[in-house]
Design a protein that fits this description.
The protein is an alpha/beta fold. The protein is about 40% helix and about 15% strand.
């Protein structure tokens, strides 16, 4: 049928999705839920896995796949999967590898909902867990049992910034036949590449440094082997927590400036941590770039920069923390981290409020603890903002 014979109702549907034109420098967004088959046999072959190609965007989408390929390369992995959030990545990981009767060893200093996911939802399915100070290798070793399937850590850990020895924990986990996953959200692949240090799996909240602009929620799982990739791809397809193409496009755009941003985050955070440590109203500061950090030497060895997160406590405890959080102007009072703008928040009543209180206390998340995510603004403006806010305390 010639074009001009088509009814406008048909044209609305068919001419709004033209084929790719020219050779774009930036990949177009494949904002489509489904893909046509050339003929019956092609469709059947795609479903049977006999030929490569796209079927349906929950299974695979070209824009999302471009991001997945990019993340695998940044982390030195084989393949990766992008998910609808960091939590979806962790859920997909555990659902893939752990069954009733299995055991997880998890770091106590992790994002609050990660603890809740393991302690509440997976425990209900008969998966037990032990939470340890992952900077203490003896604690990790003692917690491992013959049923341990997965060791899960964050380094640096949210929000205490505790640093754990990736290579040493990989050895301990592998000696017991357990898989070892590292949530690399705080470092980003620019500062640390856990797969190269012996981890089997890397988790990311793309919401943070990788996207970097506080306008996307997303996650990722990076893997070393095709076998793991295929297992996880099946789980993700069935659980359904996939990333949308537009979000993938935004993260790809964010990644273009990741290295530059990380450099500025690190430089700014170093100066701010030094300022805070000298301030008379500050009790202590935790920042991997300060010699006072308990794992300063390990951080220097394992990471190529200290990152953009700082945690600290004021001498005035909880009341002083409340005052400070209500007094900053440039530091935005908001959770999340890793964006170009500086943020300030109170873990015990915000990001880690859902955590069982005993594990929260065990992890050192005190009521006076404040966490800041240092952005890429001019550092003296940020220091002046904290300085004036500290005067209100
Ligand atoms: N892993 C880490 C280390 C995180 O910090 C977060 C979120 C997640 C995983 C979960 O990622 P999401 O599902 O949010 O993409 N951390 C947050 C925080 O510290 N403040 O708000 C969110």
């Amino acid at each position: 049928m010639s074009e001009n014979k088509l009814h406008i109702n048909t044209l609305c549907v068919h001419r709004s999705s033209p084929a790719t034109r020219g050779s774009p420098v930036v990949s177009p967004i494949y904002e489509t839920s489904t893909f046509s088959f050339r003929d019956f046999q092609h469709g059947a072959d795609l479903f049977a896995g006999k030929v490569p190609g796209y079927i349906y965007s929950r299974m695979l989408n070209p824009t999302v796949e471009l991001l997945e390929d990019c993340l695998a390369q940044l982390e030195g992995g084989h393949r990766s999967l992008a998910t609808s959030s960091g939590m979806a990545a962790i859920q997909t990981l555990i659902a893939t590898f752990c069954s009733q009767g299995d055991h997880i060893v998890c770091a106590e200093s992790v994002y609050g909902p990660t603890t809740t996911l393991i302690k509440k939802y997976f425990q209900r399915l008969g998966i037990t867990s032990t939470f340890v100070d992952s900077s203490n290798l003896n604690e990790v070793k003692t917690a491992l049992t013959p049923n341990t399937k997965l060791v899960f850590i964050e380094t640096p850990g949210n929000p205490t910034l505790v640093v754990s020895d990736i290579a040493a924990i990989a050895e301990l986990a592998h000696a017991k036949g357990a898989l070892f996953a590292v949530d690399n959200t705080f470092a980003s692949p620019i500062l640390q590449q856990p797969l190269r240090l012996g981890a089997d799996i890397v988790i990311h909240s793309l919401t943070k440094f990788l996207n970097g602009h506080a306008d996307v929620v997303g996650g990722a799982i990076v893997l070393k082997t095709q076998e793991h990739y295929e297992l996880l791809r099946k789980t993700l397809n069935h659980l359904g927590g996939v990333l949308a193409p537009f979000e993938a496009f935004l993260v790809l755009r964010g990644i273009k400036t990741l290295a530059l941003r990380m450099q500025r985050h690190c430089e700014n955070a170093q100066k701010i941590a030094e300022f805070l440590e000298k301030h008379p109203k500050v009790k202590w500061v935790r920042f991997p770039g300060l010699p006072s950090h308990p794992q300063y030497e390990l951080a220097k060895k394992q990471m190529s920069g200290p990152g953009g997160l700082i945690s600290f406590e004021l001498k005035g405890g909880f009341d002083a923390a409340q005052r400070l959080l209500n007094s900053t102007h440039l530091f935005i009072l908001a959770v999340s981290l890793g964006g170009v703008e500086s943020l300030i928040q109170h873990p015990a009543s915000m990001t880690h409020a859902s955590m069982p209180p005993d594990i929260r206390t065990q992890a050192g998340i005190t009521d006076g603890l404040i966490r800041i995510s240092v952005g890429i603004e001019e550092v003296n403006d940020l220091i002046n903002d904290l300085d004036q806010a500290l005067q209100q305390v």
